[in-house]
Structures are given as structure tokens and as C-alpha cells.
Design goal:
By secondary structure, the protein is mainly beta. Helices cover 6% and strands 49% of the residues. It contains two helices and 24 strands. The strands form seven sheets. Strands 3-4-5-6 form a four-stranded antiparallel beta sheet, with no helix packed on it.
Amino acid sequence: YQRRVHGEKRKFKGTMKPIKLHIHEKPVNVVKLNFDGDLLFTGSSDKKVNLLYALTGERIGTFTCKGSVKTLDVTDDSRYLITGSLQGSIEVWEVDGGKEVRQLQTNGKIKTVELSLGDKEVLILYESFKGQQKILVLPFEDLLNAENRAESEWGSVKPILEKPIDKTFGTLTQVTWGFMNRYIIASTEKGELIKLSVTGDVEKRVSAHNEQVTSFSFSKDYSMLITASRDGGKIFDPETLTCLKTFRQDFPMNTAAISPLYLSKKPRFHAIMAGGVSAREAALVKVTKIVT
């Protein structure tokens, strides 16, 4: 295979071999590489986060959390790891040594934790056990020094933003920071994309798909946003949420990404999507066809 090094195309002999790891007892819900790309974090329903060398797959250590790990993020300097669980716990760990620095216990589920550019703030998608969702932004420094207090679900931390989600939006499936932390993008089970200001005001709201947006991601320079849904994928302008391109697929798509190579000297405008149907759904389709 070939690799471009310092602008020159060089050939390397050998083959690329996948590394298959069995490091969790239950399904893996989230994987994350650190900023430098040399450390890999995996979070699972077995209440554990494993830390591995990305190159070899060798396990460095394990963080044991209070609940099923749904989401995680790591600071740019790889000093702190933050995790969120479906049992409502938010935990901050020191990556070097595995010491738990802080823990907050909430009365709901933590669907998303994401550090802002610069690691100053934490974006959280919270869902109460009754189904009411909120988007919160917490100061990361305050979270590190937080104390659990009975009078406040967020302990001694005062949220910068606490935005209850209107039921007309439906259930949010994902939230993430936009370009330079200027805005927040959210997707819903109704197939909508919502652009929120940092104060929580709705700036744009569009119907992206006919069904649930399963995931979305930005291009490397945040100039484009690609979505995945049961009817395929689409590329949007994040600023205006205008649809730029539509990709129709025969199977449901679960995830999508835009290649960073479109920014190279010889641009390659590539997008990758993956998905499919479960064996159970495929069996139901076959049975339905036979019956009808």
C-alpha cells in the first residue's frame, strides 16, 4: 500500500492486519481515540472503560464506572477522561494512574458528554427516567472541583446552559459542538436537525430525513455535515442546514463520515457510510413476504 509522507508518495511493503480484541463482557457502546491518536478508549455496558495502545491493542488499564457506559471523552492533553452512564453518573478520571477525580450522581441517564474545543466546557445530553431531556453546558474546571449536594442535581456546579427539550422536538439522538464552539447541532428521532445558539435559542430547524437520524458527523474543517438514517445519508451546510447532496441506500445506514482527503492538494471527495439490518429484522421481513 502507499502512504504520503511530507508531500511525497512512498511505498511500504507488507499487509494491514486487523486486530480483534475481546476486552469486554457486554456490548461496546462507545470508542474514542485521544487527540494524538496513540490511545484508544472503549466504553461498555459492563460498566468498564478500557484504555489501550491504539497501535498494538495492548491494554494499559481499566476504569470501573458506576453504571453502563454510554458516552465518554478525553481532554486534548490526555490528562482527564470523562464518562457518562445510563445510571446517571458523570465521572472524571486521571488517565495516568486511573484515579477517580470527581463523581456526580444525577436522577436520569447521561446520553452524551463532549468537551468543547479547548476543554473549557462540557456539553451534556441528559434524559430523566420519565423521558424529559435537557441539553446542559457545564464549566469543566467547576466539574473537577464539584461536590455532591442534596439541593442540586449537579452538585456545586452551576450550568452555563440548561435547555429543556420541548416535546414537539421528539427525542434527541445526538448533540455535538459546532465550529469553534459557536453553536450546537442536535438530531432527533423524527429525522430533524436542530441548530442551537450557545444560549439555547433555536436558530435553525429542518427536516433532514423521514425517519430517525441515527448519527451525524462534521468534516475536518466543519464546512460540511453528513447524516445517516434508514433512507440513506445526506450532506448539509452546518451554517444554514441546507441540503447539499443526497445518497439513497437500500439498507438503513447507522453511521457516516466525510474523508479529510478533500482538503489535500489533490482533493478526493469521498464519504463513507455503514449500516444494515439485524438478523431479527431480516427474519421478520422474510416471514412477512411469505405471509403476504
